Protein backbone atom coordinates (compact mmCIF):
# COMPACT_ATOMS: atom_id res chain seq x y z
CA UNK A 1 0.00 0.00 0.00
CA UNK A 2 2.86 2.39 0.82
CA UNK A 3 4.33 1.77 -2.59
CA UNK A 4 1.03 2.77 -4.16
CA UNK A 5 0.96 6.01 -2.18
CA UNK A 6 4.60 6.67 -3.09
CA UNK A 7 3.94 6.13 -6.77
CA UNK A 8 0.89 8.34 -6.48
CA UNK A 9 3.05 11.12 -5.06
CA UNK A 10 5.83 10.87 -7.61
CA UNK A 11 4.31 10.26 -10.98
CA UNK A 12 1.37 12.59 -11.57
CA UNK A 13 -0.57 15.60 -10.52
CA UNK A 14 -3.97 14.78 -9.06
CA UNK A 15 -6.08 17.44 -7.42
CA UNK A 16 -8.36 16.15 -4.67
CA UNK A 17 -10.93 18.76 -3.76
CA UNK A 18 -13.19 19.22 -0.82
CA UNK A 19 -16.12 21.31 -1.91
CA UNK A 20 -17.96 20.68 1.31
CA UNK A 21 -21.37 20.33 -0.31
CA UNK A 22 -23.56 18.05 1.75
CA UNK A 23 -24.57 14.95 -0.17
CA UNK A 24 -28.30 14.48 -0.37
CA UNK A 25 -28.76 10.75 -0.86
CA UNK A 26 -32.36 11.25 -1.77
CA UNK A 27 -34.17 8.39 -3.51
CA UNK A 28 -35.74 8.98 -6.92
CA UNK A 29 -39.26 10.36 -6.56
CA UNK A 30 -40.86 8.82 -9.66
CA UNK A 31 -42.23 5.29 -9.98
CA UNK A 32 -39.97 4.08 -12.79
CA UNK A 33 -36.66 5.34 -11.37
CA UNK A 34 -37.32 4.20 -7.80
CA UNK A 35 -38.47 0.78 -8.92
CA UNK A 36 -35.40 0.42 -11.15
CA UNK A 37 -33.10 1.30 -8.23
CA UNK A 38 -34.67 -1.32 -5.98
CA UNK A 39 -34.49 -3.97 -8.71
CA UNK A 40 -30.85 -3.14 -9.44
CA UNK A 41 -29.90 -3.63 -5.80
CA UNK A 42 -32.09 -6.73 -5.44
CA UNK A 43 -31.51 -8.67 -8.67
CA UNK A 44 -28.48 -6.98 -10.18
CA UNK A 45 -30.38 -5.34 -13.05
CA UNK A 46 -33.56 -3.46 -13.82
CA UNK A 47 -36.39 -5.85 -14.69
CA UNK A 48 -38.76 -5.75 -17.66
CA UNK A 49 -42.50 -6.23 -17.95
CA UNK A 50 -45.59 -4.58 -16.53
CA UNK A 51 -45.06 -2.35 -13.50
CA UNK A 52 -47.62 -4.23 -11.41
CA UNK A 53 -45.91 -7.55 -12.14
CA UNK A 54 -42.53 -6.13 -11.15
CA UNK A 55 -43.89 -4.72 -7.87
CA UNK A 56 -45.68 -7.99 -7.14
CA UNK A 57 -42.42 -9.89 -7.59
CA UNK A 58 -40.52 -7.65 -5.18
CA UNK A 59 -43.26 -7.90 -2.55
CA UNK A 60 -43.38 -11.68 -2.94
CA UNK A 61 -39.59 -12.04 -2.73
CA UNK A 62 -39.19 -9.82 0.32
CA UNK A 63 -42.46 -10.31 2.24
CA UNK A 64 -44.40 -13.20 0.73
CA UNK A 65 -47.54 -11.07 0.37
CA UNK A 66 -48.86 -8.21 -1.71
CA UNK A 67 -49.80 -4.76 -0.43
CA UNK A 68 -52.72 -2.59 -1.40
CA UNK A 69 -52.56 1.05 -2.35
CA UNK A 70 -51.06 3.15 -5.11
CA UNK A 71 -48.01 2.16 -7.13
CA UNK A 72 -45.82 4.70 -5.36
CA UNK A 73 -47.02 3.81 -1.86
CA UNK A 74 -46.20 0.15 -2.50
CA UNK A 75 -42.78 1.00 -3.90
CA UNK A 76 -42.11 3.35 -0.96
CA UNK A 77 -42.94 0.55 1.49
CA UNK A 78 -40.46 -1.80 -0.21
CA UNK A 79 -37.84 0.95 -0.34
CA UNK A 80 -38.19 1.65 3.40
CA UNK A 81 -37.76 -2.04 4.24
CA UNK A 82 -34.59 -2.33 2.21
CA UNK A 83 -32.85 0.98 2.91
CA UNK A 84 -34.31 2.84 5.90
CA UNK A 85 -33.04 2.45 9.48
CA UNK A 86 -35.78 3.74 11.74
CA UNK A 87 -37.43 1.56 14.40
CA UNK A 88 -35.35 -1.40 13.23
CA UNK A 89 -32.31 -1.98 11.01
CA UNK A 90 -32.92 -2.09 7.28
CA UNK A 91 -32.62 -5.29 5.26
CA UNK A 92 -29.39 -4.02 3.71
CA UNK A 93 -27.87 -3.27 7.10
CA UNK A 94 -28.68 -6.77 8.35
CA UNK A 95 -27.23 -8.24 5.18
CA UNK A 96 -24.07 -6.12 5.45
CA UNK A 97 -23.56 -7.12 9.08
CA UNK A 98 -23.96 -10.84 8.35
CA UNK A 99 -21.68 -10.71 5.32
CA UNK A 100 -19.01 -8.87 7.30
CA UNK A 101 -19.30 -11.35 10.17
CA UNK A 102 -18.59 -14.17 7.71
CA UNK A 103 -15.79 -12.66 5.65
CA UNK A 104 -14.88 -9.32 7.31
CA UNK A 105 -15.86 -7.58 4.10
CA UNK A 106 -19.04 -6.40 2.40
CA UNK A 107 -19.72 -6.44 -1.32
CA UNK A 108 -21.54 -4.34 -3.87
CA UNK A 109 -23.38 -7.30 -5.37
CA UNK A 110 -27.15 -7.73 -5.53
CA UNK A 111 -29.19 -8.93 -2.52
CA UNK A 112 -30.18 -12.12 -4.34
CA UNK A 113 -26.58 -13.09 -5.10
CA UNK A 114 -25.29 -12.22 -1.65
CA UNK A 115 -27.98 -14.25 0.12
CA UNK A 116 -27.30 -17.27 -2.12
CA UNK A 117 -23.54 -17.08 -1.56
CA UNK A 118 -23.79 -16.71 2.22
CA UNK A 119 -26.24 -19.60 2.47
CA UNK A 120 -23.83 -21.82 0.56
CA UNK A 121 -20.92 -20.69 2.76
CA UNK A 122 -22.75 -21.13 6.08
CA UNK A 123 -25.39 -23.79 5.44
CA UNK A 124 -24.09 -25.67 2.40
CA UNK A 125 -27.22 -25.03 0.34
CA UNK A 126 -29.48 -22.20 -0.74
CA UNK A 127 -32.64 -21.62 1.27
CA UNK A 128 -36.27 -21.21 0.42
CA UNK A 129 -38.83 -18.55 1.27
CA UNK A 130 -38.62 -14.77 1.31
CA UNK A 131 -35.40 -12.81 1.47
CA UNK A 132 -36.37 -11.65 4.97
CA UNK A 133 -36.85 -15.21 6.18
CA UNK A 134 -33.57 -16.34 4.64
CA UNK A 135 -31.66 -13.37 6.10
CA UNK A 136 -33.09 -14.15 9.55
CA UNK A 137 -31.82 -17.74 9.21
CA UNK A 138 -28.40 -16.40 8.20
CA UNK A 139 -28.39 -14.11 11.25
CA UNK A 140 -29.06 -17.05 13.55
CA UNK A 141 -26.31 -19.08 11.89
CA UNK A 142 -23.84 -16.17 11.97
CA UNK A 143 -24.58 -14.33 15.24
CA UNK A 144 -26.46 -17.07 17.11
CA UNK A 145 -29.66 -15.03 17.30
CA UNK A 146 -32.25 -13.37 15.08
CA UNK A 147 -31.48 -9.83 16.26
CA UNK A 148 -28.15 -8.51 15.03
CA UNK A 149 -26.25 -6.57 17.77
CA UNK A 150 -26.87 -3.12 16.32
CA UNK A 151 -26.15 0.06 18.26
CA UNK A 152 -26.31 3.81 17.45
CA UNK A 153 -22.82 5.31 17.20
CA UNK A 154 -21.72 8.95 17.14
CA UNK A 155 -19.01 9.10 14.48
CA UNK A 156 -16.79 12.17 14.99
CA UNK A 157 -16.08 14.63 12.22
CA UNK A 158 -12.73 13.97 10.51
CA UNK A 159 -12.77 10.24 11.14
CA UNK A 160 -10.28 8.80 8.64
CA UNK A 161 -11.25 6.21 6.03
CA UNK A 162 -8.81 4.38 3.77
CA UNK A 163 -10.31 3.82 0.32
CA UNK A 164 -9.29 2.22 -2.98
CA UNK A 165 -10.30 3.32 -6.46
CA UNK A 166 -12.74 1.08 -8.35
CA UNK A 167 -12.85 3.38 -11.38
CA UNK A 168 -9.42 4.03 -12.95
CA UNK A 169 -8.53 7.72 -13.08
CA UNK A 170 -6.89 8.72 -16.36
CA UNK A 171 -6.95 12.33 -17.52
CA UNK A 172 -7.11 11.23 -21.15
CA UNK A 173 -10.39 9.36 -20.63
CA UNK A 174 -12.25 11.59 -18.19
CA UNK A 175 -14.53 14.59 -18.48
CA UNK A 176 -16.17 16.88 -15.96
CA UNK A 177 -19.19 15.23 -14.35
CA UNK A 178 -17.89 11.66 -14.63
CA UNK A 179 -18.49 9.43 -11.61
CA UNK A 180 -15.49 7.89 -9.86
CA UNK A 181 -16.38 4.83 -7.79
CA UNK A 182 -14.25 3.66 -4.90
CA UNK A 183 -14.45 1.19 -2.04
CA UNK A 184 -13.57 1.34 1.63
CA UNK A 185 -10.24 -0.49 1.92
CA UNK A 186 -10.20 -1.06 5.70
CA UNK A 187 -12.89 -1.47 8.34
CA UNK A 188 -13.55 1.59 10.49
CA UNK A 189 -14.44 1.21 14.18
CA UNK A 190 -15.63 3.82 16.65
CA UNK A 191 -15.69 2.74 20.29
CA UNK A 192 -15.52 -0.95 19.25
CA UNK A 193 -18.51 -0.55 16.95
CA UNK A 194 -18.10 -1.25 13.25
CA UNK A 195 -19.41 1.69 11.19
CA UNK A 196 -17.68 1.41 7.77
CA UNK A 197 -16.79 -1.97 6.30
CA UNK A 198 -14.14 -3.00 3.85
CA UNK A 199 -15.78 -3.23 0.43
CA UNK A 200 -18.43 -0.55 1.08
CA UNK A 201 -19.11 1.72 -1.88
CA UNK A 202 -18.24 5.37 -2.30
CA UNK A 203 -18.78 7.82 -5.10
CA UNK A 204 -16.88 10.90 -6.28
CA UNK A 205 -17.38 13.33 -9.13
CA UNK A 206 -14.80 14.73 -11.56
CA UNK A 207 -14.96 18.52 -11.29
CA UNK A 208 -12.00 19.48 -13.51
CA UNK A 209 -9.83 17.84 -16.18
CA UNK A 210 -6.77 19.39 -17.80
CA UNK A 211 -4.54 17.49 -20.20
CA UNK A 212 -0.75 17.61 -19.95
CA UNK A 213 1.00 20.00 -22.32
CA UNK A 214 4.47 21.10 -23.24
CA UNK A 215 6.60 23.41 -21.07
CA UNK A 216 5.94 21.47 -17.89
CA UNK A 217 2.18 21.85 -17.79
CA UNK A 218 1.04 18.69 -16.01
CA UNK A 219 -2.26 16.96 -16.50
CA UNK A 220 -4.69 17.69 -13.71
CA UNK A 221 -7.77 15.83 -12.52
CA UNK A 222 -9.94 17.31 -9.81
CA UNK A 223 -12.23 14.94 -7.90
CA UNK A 224 -14.74 15.60 -5.15
CA UNK A 225 -14.88 12.43 -3.00
CA UNK A 226 -18.24 13.47 -1.69
CA UNK A 227 -20.07 10.49 -0.20
CA UNK A 228 -19.23 7.10 1.26
CA UNK A 229 -21.67 4.38 2.27
CA UNK A 230 -21.62 3.29 5.91
CA UNK A 231 -22.50 -0.17 7.25
CA UNK A 232 -26.11 0.88 7.83
CA UNK A 233 -26.47 2.05 4.21
CA UNK A 234 -26.29 5.76 5.00
CA UNK A 235 -24.27 7.89 2.58
CA UNK A 236 -21.91 10.00 4.70
CA UNK A 237 -20.41 13.23 3.39
CA UNK A 238 -16.64 12.74 3.03
CA UNK A 239 -13.78 14.83 1.68
CA UNK A 240 -10.00 15.23 1.47
CA UNK A 241 -9.18 17.32 4.53
CA UNK A 242 -6.09 18.02 6.59
CA UNK A 243 -6.11 14.71 8.44
CA UNK A 244 -6.36 12.74 5.19
CA UNK A 245 -3.57 14.83 3.61
CA UNK A 246 -1.29 14.25 6.59
CA UNK A 247 -1.89 10.51 6.49
CA UNK A 248 -1.03 10.35 2.80
CA UNK A 249 2.06 12.49 3.29
CA UNK A 250 3.29 10.31 6.16
CA UNK A 251 2.88 7.15 4.15
CA UNK A 252 4.56 8.64 1.10
CA UNK A 253 7.52 9.75 3.21
CA UNK A 254 7.77 6.35 4.89
CA UNK A 255 7.90 4.75 1.46
CA UNK A 256 10.83 6.91 0.45
CA UNK A 257 9.15 9.91 -1.17
CA UNK A 258 10.38 13.31 -0.10
CA UNK A 259 7.94 15.90 1.15
CA UNK A 260 8.89 18.02 -1.86
CA UNK A 261 7.18 15.42 -4.00
CA UNK A 262 3.81 16.42 -2.59
CA UNK A 263 2.44 19.88 -3.14
CA UNK A 264 -0.41 21.06 -0.93
CA UNK A 265 -2.75 23.87 -1.87
CA UNK A 266 -4.35 25.61 1.06
CA UNK A 267 -7.45 27.83 1.09
CA UNK A 268 -5.46 30.72 -0.39
CA UNK A 269 -3.94 28.61 -3.14
CA UNK A 270 -0.41 28.70 -1.72
CA UNK A 271 1.69 25.96 -3.32
CA UNK A 272 4.34 23.96 -1.48
CA UNK A 273 6.34 22.30 -4.24
CA UNK A 274 6.92 22.93 -7.90
CA UNK A 275 5.41 21.67 -11.13
CA UNK A 276 7.86 19.78 -13.29
CA UNK A 277 7.57 18.11 -16.70
CA UNK A 278 4.08 17.60 -18.09
CA UNK A 279 2.72 14.20 -17.01
CA UNK A 280 -0.56 12.39 -17.50
CA UNK A 281 -2.69 11.49 -14.50
CA UNK A 282 -3.08 7.71 -14.67
CA UNK A 283 -4.26 5.87 -11.56
CA UNK A 284 -5.23 2.20 -11.92
CA UNK A 285 -8.09 0.58 -10.04
CA UNK A 286 -6.88 -0.39 -6.58
CA UNK A 287 -4.90 2.80 -5.94
CA UNK A 288 -5.36 3.66 -2.26
CA UNK A 289 -5.80 7.04 -0.61
CA UNK A 290 -7.48 8.59 2.42
CA UNK A 291 -10.62 10.61 3.01
CA UNK A 292 -12.37 11.77 6.16
CA UNK A 293 -15.90 12.39 7.39
CA UNK A 294 -17.10 15.98 7.06
CA UNK A 295 -19.41 16.30 10.07
CA UNK A 296 -20.23 14.43 13.25
CA UNK A 297 -22.76 11.79 12.22
CA UNK A 298 -24.91 9.28 14.08
CA UNK A 299 -24.89 5.88 12.37
CA UNK A 300 -25.98 2.39 13.29
CA UNK A 301 -23.01 0.12 13.90
CA UNK A 302 -22.43 -3.46 14.98
CA UNK A 303 -20.85 -3.90 18.39
CA UNK A 304 -17.85 -6.16 18.02
CA UNK A 305 -14.47 -6.88 19.55
CA UNK A 306 -12.91 -7.51 16.14
CA UNK A 307 -10.18 -4.96 15.36
CA UNK A 308 -8.43 -4.52 12.05
CA UNK A 309 -5.53 -2.85 13.91
CA UNK A 310 -5.42 0.31 11.80
CA UNK A 311 -4.47 3.00 14.35
CA UNK A 312 -6.06 5.87 12.46
CA UNK A 313 -9.47 4.30 11.86
CA UNK A 314 -11.36 5.94 14.69
CA UNK A 315 -9.18 9.04 14.92
CA UNK A 316 -10.95 12.36 14.98
CA UNK A 317 -9.25 15.67 14.32
CA UNK A 318 -9.50 18.25 17.07
CA UNK A 319 -9.30 21.25 14.77
CA UNK A 320 -12.51 23.07 13.97
CA UNK A 321 -11.34 25.32 11.10
CA UNK A 322 -13.29 25.41 7.87
CA UNK A 323 -11.80 23.12 5.20
CA UNK A 324 -14.55 23.41 2.64
CA UNK A 325 -12.26 24.54 -0.16
CA UNK A 326 -9.02 22.69 0.71
CA UNK A 327 -7.23 21.05 -2.20
CA UNK A 328 -4.40 18.52 -2.31
CA UNK A 329 -2.04 18.30 -5.25
CA UNK A 330 0.39 15.46 -5.83
CA UNK A 331 3.26 16.86 -7.84
CA UNK A 332 5.85 15.26 -10.08
CA UNK A 333 9.29 14.71 -8.57
CA UNK A 334 12.52 14.46 -10.52
Any idea of the CATH topology of the domain at 2-25 and 152-330? Lipocalin
Instruction: Please state the average pLDDT score.
Output: 77
Strand order of the largest sheet: 3-5-8-9-10-13
Largest sheet: 6 strands, antiparallel, barrel
Number of strands: 15
Number of helices: 8
What would you note in describing this structure?
- With 334 residues, the protein is α+β, with helices and mostly antiparallel strands.
- It has a domain of 203 residues: Type IV secretion system, VirB10/TraB/TrbI (Lipocalin).
- The protein contains 8 helices and 15 strands.
- The strands form 3 sheets. It has a 6-stranded antiparallel beta barrel with strand order 3-5-8-9-10-13. A 4-stranded antiparallel sheet has the order 2-14-7-6, with no helix packed on it. A two-stranded antiparallel sheet has the order 4-12.
- Helix 1 packs across helix 8.
- The longest helix is centred in the first third of the chain and has 13 residues.
- It is globular.
Amino acid sequence: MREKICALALTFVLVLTSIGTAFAAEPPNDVQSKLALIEQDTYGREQTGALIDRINRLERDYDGAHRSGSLMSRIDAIYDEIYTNSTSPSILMDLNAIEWNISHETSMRAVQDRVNEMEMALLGKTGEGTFKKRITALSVASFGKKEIPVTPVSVPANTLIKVALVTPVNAKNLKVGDTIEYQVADDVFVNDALVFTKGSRGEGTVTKVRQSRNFGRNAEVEIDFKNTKALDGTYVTTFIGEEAKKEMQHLAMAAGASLAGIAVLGPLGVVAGAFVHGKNVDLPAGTELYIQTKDETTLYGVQTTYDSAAPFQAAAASSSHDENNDTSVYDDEV
